[in-house]
Design brief:
Strand content: 5-15%
Oligomer: single chain
Helix content: 40-55%
Radius of gyration: 25 Å
Mean pLDDT: 91
Number of helices: 12
CATH class of the largest domain: Alpha Beta
Number of domains: 3
CATH topology of the largest domain: Rossmann fold
Structural class: alpha/beta
CATH architecture of the largest domain: 3-Layer(aba) Sandwich
Strand order of the largest sheet: 2-1-3-4-5-11
Shape: elongated
Largest sheet: 6 strands, parallel
Length: 342
């Protein structure tokens, strides 16, 4: 059977093609009786407008993309959840691009999305979190941004001029350190993350700054960077506990490493928080699912995704949008922190 076209609908309704188009796209008023007749014919034939053809006319595809580095890290699905719900409400569909931490795959996705003519891109992690992004990788994203609206979440490209939505992670790390100091802890360690990434080092610097205000610091042997996984948290925590002078409290780069640290602590026969306090970062669903429940810093992940879509929508519609939207973190105190051991 030959598919019905907009021309067939116009002929059957005895109206012009432009009238049918106005009904389909809701771009101009159409008499109620005429609209009802056209919609009846559309329903009868189960007509579906050709999205590709519509995109050629409207210069829009109704699709946006989100590029993220690790779909298995609970932080990123939480951001995506906020973004997708907001996007659906605005009439967009989503491309989800998981790079698995591969910068080459980021480039492949950027090329593909340009070919797909998406209306906009939300970018998380990867190159935008590097302390020093190579010039060619930075320029690649800048070139994409000249053709397609791009919003960065929790990251930046120096001199890229991108619109950004981010949580003040330094302020969040300072909240974690202040909480432990108020509990009487002086021997504090930091676990997880990569020194090449700004999202790690901004937390480390904020914790060190807060400790120095109290005449303290994190010694080198208690600053154990590595990665962001549960296994990494377990491994680095084992080094701390098997040292000659274990800390009484640990701040972790994210909730994954914090949960790994908690597992190793319990396996060593220690009690949380009686023997050692542990703080995470992100407030993912895992934080309230473990026992004891994890004290952590909320980044308002759902809101990050929602606001990124709102900003992207404004850019797609060529409206004036402020460059930066900053969210303030919140310390969520649960069961994994307590007074320093005497």
């Amino acid at each position: 059977m030959t598919p019905i076209t907009i021309y067939d609908i116009a002929k059957e309704a005895n109206v012009s093609v432009s009238t049918v188009s106005r009904v389909l796209n809701d771009t101009a008023p159409v008499r109620a009786s005429t609209r009802e007749k056209i919609m009846s014919i559309i329903a009868k034939h189960q007509f579906q407008p050709n999205a590709q053809a519509r995109s050629l006319i409207k210069k829009e595809t109704g699709t946006i993309a989100i590029i993220l580095p690790d779909i298995t890290n609970p932080f990123f699905p939480e951001v995506f959840w906020g973004a997708e719900n907001e996007a659906r409400g605005l009439g967009y569909t989503f491309f989800l691009c998981n790079t698995a931490g591969d910068y080459n795959r980021e480039s492949e996705y950027l090329s593909m999305l340009r070919e797909k003519r998406v209306d906009g891109i939300i970018f998380l992690g990867g190159r935008i979190n590097m302390q020093t992004c190579p010039d060619d990788m930075a320029q690649e994203l800048i070139d994409v941004g000249k053709r397609t609206p791009v919003v960065l979440v929790n990251g930046n490209i120096a001199k890229g001029g991108f619109h950004r939505v981010y949580t003040d992670e330094g302020a969040g790390a300072a909240l974690a350190a202040e909480h432990l100091l108020e509990l009487g802890h002086k021997d504090i360690a930091f676990v997880g993350g990569l020194k090449e990434l700004s999202t790690t080092m901004v937390k480390v610097r904020a914790v060190q700054k807060k400790l120095r205000e109290h005449g303290l610091e994190i010694p080198k042997d208690r600053l154990l960077l590595g990665s962001f996984s549960i296994d990494d948290g377990k491994r680095e925590m084992a080094k701390l506990l098997e040292s000659d002078n274990p800390p009484t409290a640990v701040i972790c780069v994210n909730d994954n490493t914090a949960i790994g640290a908690m597992k190793t602590t319990i396996e060593h026969g220690l009690s949380i928080p009686r023997d050692i306090s542990i703080v995470g970062f992100d407030d993912t669903p895992l934080a309230s699912a473990v026992i004891p429940e994890l004290t952590t810093v909320s980044q308002n992940t759902y809101q990050l995704g929602k606001l990124a879509v709102d900003k992207l929508h404004e850019l797609i519609n060529q409206r004036q949008v402020k460059k930066q939207t900053v969210l303030q973190p919140e310390l969520i105190i649960r069961q994994s922190t307590g007074p320093a051991p005497r």
